[in-house]
Amino acid sequence: MRNITTIAAAAALLLAPVVGMAQTPNAQTGPATAIPDQTIGKAGAALHDVAKLQQKYQSQMESAPAEQKKGISEQANAEAVEAIQSHGISLKEYSNVMRTAQNNPKIKERVLEAARQGE
């Protein structure tokens, strides 16, 4: 069973650039409880896939020469975006859920539970 630390690490390491791409000056979410269960489920399933991608690319990043790291990172982020969108959730929605989860323990637990169900 994938532990919470691995999933959280994937979100932090791999998605920081992805989340940054989706940010707009007025990208705000409403109250955390207003996030529908279906959206939480899609975001959690996407997070599960992104965690798998993070594991896939982590060793490549560690062993790659500095000049290759940018290309590897770009490829990993492109695959992360594709993985997110394959779950029927936009990058903006996913980013909003992830930002909300960072600040709301209840939402965070719901997202992590949805991610664990994808194992």
Task: Show unreliable segments.
Answer: 1-5, 19-30
| Number of beta strands | 0
Tally of contiguous helical segments? 5
Write down the overall mean pLDDT. Answer: 79
Cα-based radius of gyration, to the nearest Å: 14 Å
Order of helices and strands: HHHHH
Q: How does this model look, in words?
A:
The chain has 119 residues and is mostly helical. The protein has one domain (4-21, 36-117). The chain has five helices and no strands. The chain has helices at residues 4-22, 37-63, 66-85, 91-103, 105-117. α2 packs across α5 (105-117). The radius of gyration is 14 Å and the shape is elongated. It starts with a helix and ends with a helix. Residues 1-5 and 19-30 have low confidence and may be disordered.
Task: Set down the secondary structure blueprint.
Elements: H1 4-22, H2 37-63, H3 66-85, H4 91-103, H5 105-117
